[in-house]
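Reply to dn_fold:

You asked what the input looked like. This is it:
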Amino acid sequence: MNFLTLAVFVSSALFTIVSAHTRVYGVWVNGVFQGDGRELYIRSSPTNDPIKDLKSGAMECNANNHEVPQWIDVKGGDKLTLEWYREKRNDNIIASSHHGPVQVYIAPASSNSWTKLFEEAYDATSKTWATNRVAKAHGQHSIKVPHLEAGTYLVRGEMTALHQADQLYSHRKSRGVQFYISCIQIRVTSNVSQRLPEGTKFPGTYKDDTPGIQWDLYGPGEGDAPERYIPPGPSVWEGAKGGEIAQVGKGR
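and this is what came back:
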């Protein structure tokens, strides 16, 4: 293989790796698209690279965690749909090799106190991982907004890729579980008094010994069976109103 051929091969491989990643493009409220939210109501990372260092501040809301100009108005019971993308809207969302769970957390905007609203991982009936089901649903998955006291909140979408999670990032920097995280700014307008419970913090919730962080996706052992996988983090809050992975609308 000559130098030029090698350079083209390496460049192509690097592009494939980069373009395999994902982040949130925008949200839908009750089936109505709210527009491109990047740096408007989404605290968008400058790249779609994953977070692998569990101690990084980016574990909360990725690498660009600052307030952006807009807040999406919602009320308790509304259906809030996150729409992910890879390089451009309506592409293939995330590499098919990036198997793993999908989770959603919520926190008061002024507090690093996160409550889990939704999680899905491996579905034994369809034999598919949640990340792949989101890709099939054109990048869309939804939660029902809980009935909460009025105020501003952050919704933290998290997609996790396990294809290199057989080793810990802290032991080998080229390996480790990959997190794709986007935070959406919402304003709850409901007139109720329910508050979120005391939540968990990022970074800090996920550690090397947390179940779901190290996982041999291709391991031969009985313990590696995908239906035995448990997503990292706390249980879904009992006050959560549910969610689903399904397409609610078509992007343009």
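The helical segments are 3-19, 58-61, 130-136.
Hope that clears it up.
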